[in-house]
Design brief:
Elements: H1 2-30, E1 34-38, H2 53-59, E2 68-70, E3 76-78, E4 81-86, E5 92-97, H3 111-122, E6 137-144, E7 147-152, H4 159-162, E8 189-195, E9 199-204, E10 218-222, H5 226-235, E11 240-241, H6 250-254, E12 259-264, E13 269-274, H7 284-292, H8 296-302, E14 309-310, H9 333-342, E15 349-354, H10 358-372, E16 377-382, H11 385-394, E17 400-405, H12 426-435, H13 441-457, E18 461-466, E19 469-474, E20 477-478, E21 495-496
Parallel strand pairs: 1-10, 15-16, 15-17
Antiparallel strand pairs: 2-3, 4-5, 5-7, 6-7, 8-9, 9-10, 11-19, 12-19, 13-17, 13-18, 14-18, 20-21
Helix pairs in contact: 7-9, 12-13
Length: about 500
């Protein structure tokens, strides 16, 4: 009888110990920091004052929040607003705001702050990279501390979606001017440190209004070299690379049970931007010749190792309105030569400006060779991201350049006369204006497809491929996005499973 009692007691101790160890293991896992790799370091950390995708990849949802948010499936969900209702005439939207929300410095969020944020973003001369998001706004009315009405000059059915972009996040008057270097948002993480040239470290904001993050800290480490990125993953120095820059290394990682490899979609149409303000690039025949000199499949195979999808217009293949226009200005060296001759262009020499991403540098080398084969001399000019933003994007000082436009639903950039590429097409402008008041799904698809065809036929750009979202991360991680409906590395729901 004594022996049986001892056995039962020992069993209880073992069971209790097992439970205790299990709890300790879970705690250890939940308290493990996360290191996320990124190919590019952002120029600053204010998403309302810059076009670089790397800004949003750190701060979107993690540090800053908008009235609405774009979820991992591309849907619009509540954020700092719980509901939003349009007026019957479509000329206003009323947003109900969350109560009790504070910024990381303790400042309160309310309708006055929301109005300030929107007025600041849409002010004349504002550095916001997406002014079209606010174009329809006539005025912003503070009804009470938790009620905001946005009055429009024309109906805008996409306003709740626009409010979910990083360019429309909420900022406080007390800290807005410092957000480039010392960002203060309302998100579940706050900035702990930014070591320039190395990494940004975020830690949980203890007074966050919503569900607390399950990570003790998140570091975004900047690793531009694809070889170094692979080495960092293999060594465990980086736990996740949501946009892995070395697609040629995927077979190695896919065969290793320690890693999860996910190839998803992005909104990133990769283009050869053509500066139509410069002769002879203002001649549609020359632009068509350039587009026809490009072998898209060779780029997909050679630069992206088969992971991308060729495109012929500015819309992603996963969009319901996508139209396959790869046959417009398709690869045809003979046609390219004939078009150049028809335009009277001989001995054309152009400079191809290449920002740092591997997709741009690798594609640039291939495109230069393809264009030389039809008689266009191309000089490659690699630049750092800050110089590309200053000279090519804002200064429009370039002939050709390669970049992926990762903003969602951005066909309206093809109507902006001040954009870094622009070919005037009155019908495209009419279509985009009509979209603002068109809610019928079939009518919207028809309009978007017409716009795509016009843009493709104008050869506004050389359309190359849809940038894939090549994600590689530790197999013990859960909650990372497979697709990228917005340019974000949202880690608010990420956790260690063991």
């Amino acid at each position: 009888m004594l022996t049986q009692t001892l056995r039962v007691g020992l069993l209880a101790v073992v069971c209790a110990t097992g439970v205790a160890l299990g709890a300790t293991g879970a705690m250890a896992a939940s308290q493990r920091p996360l290191v996320v790799g990124m190919a590019l370091e952002p120029p600053h950390l204010d998403p309302t004052a810059g076009a670089a995708a790397a800004i949003d990849e750190i701060v979107y949802a993690n540090l800053f929040e908008g009235l609405t948010a774009i979820a991992s499936d591309g849907s619009v969900v509540p954020a700092l607003a719980t509901t939003w209702t349009p007026a019957d005439d479509g000329l206003s939207w009323t947003f109900t705001l969350r109560d009790g929300v504070t910024f990381h410095d303790g400042s309160a969020f309310d309708a006055d702050v929301a109005a300030f944020s929107l007025d600041r973003a849409r002010a004349e001369g504002a550095p916001n990279a997406q002014p079209q998001l606010f174009q329809a706004i006539d005025r912003v009315e503070v009804v009470d501390p938790t009620t905001l009405t946005i009055h429009l000059s024309t109906p805008d059915a996409d306003l709740p979606y626009a409010m979910g972009w990083g360019d429309a996040v909420m900022v406080h008057p007390n800290s807005a001017d410092e957000n480039m270097t010392a960002p203060v948002g309302t998100g579940p993480f706050r900035l702990d440190a930014w070591r320039r040239g190395d990494r940004v470290r975020l830690v949980p904001y203890e007074e966050y209004w919503g569900e607390a993050p399950q990570l003790p800290s998140v570091e975004f480490a900047f690793i531009a070299d694809p070889t170094v990125a692979l080495s960092a993953m293999l060594a465990g120095d980086v736990h996740a690379f949501p946009n892995f820059p070395a697609p040629e290394s995927l077979p190695l990682l896919e065969g290793d049970a320690r890693y999860h490899v996910e190839i998803g979609t992005t909104e990133g149409e990769t283009i050869l931007a053509i500066n139509s303000r410069r002769a002879p690039l203002d001649d549609v025949r020359v632009r068509r010749a350039i587009a026809s000199s490009i072998d898209r499949q060779a780029l997909v195979d050679g630069a992206m190792f088969g992971t991308a999808t060729p495109i012929g217009a500015p819309m992603p293949p996963h969009n319901a309105a996508y139209l396959d226009l790869t046959s417009v200005n398709a690869y045809d060296p003979d046609r390219a030569r004939a078009l150049l001759a028809e335009a009277g262009v001989e001995n054309l020499s152009l400079t191809l400006t290449l920002p740092p991403p591997a997709y741009a540098r690798r594609s640039g080398e291939l495109i230069a060779a393809q264009m030389r084969a039809v008689g266009i001399d191309v000089a490659l000019r690699p630049v750092e991201w800050a110089e590309w933003l200053t000279k090519a994007f804002r200064g429009k000082d370039y002939d050709l350049t390669i970049v992926a436009h990762t903003e969602p639903a951005d066909i309206n950039i093809y109507t902006r006369p001040d954009y870094y590429f622009h070919v005037e097409n009155e019908r495209v402008s009419e279509i985009v204006a009509a979209l603002d008041s068109t809610v019928d799904a079939e009518e919207r698809v028809a309009l978007l497809q017409e716009a795509q065809r016009l843009i493709a036929e104008d050869a506004v750009n050389g359309f190359l491929f849809q940038l894939p979202k090549i994600g590689v991360w530790d197999a013990r991680l859960d909650g990372l996005w497979s697709d990228a409906p917005v340019q974000a590395n949202d880690v608010t729901g990420v956790r260690w499973t063991e």
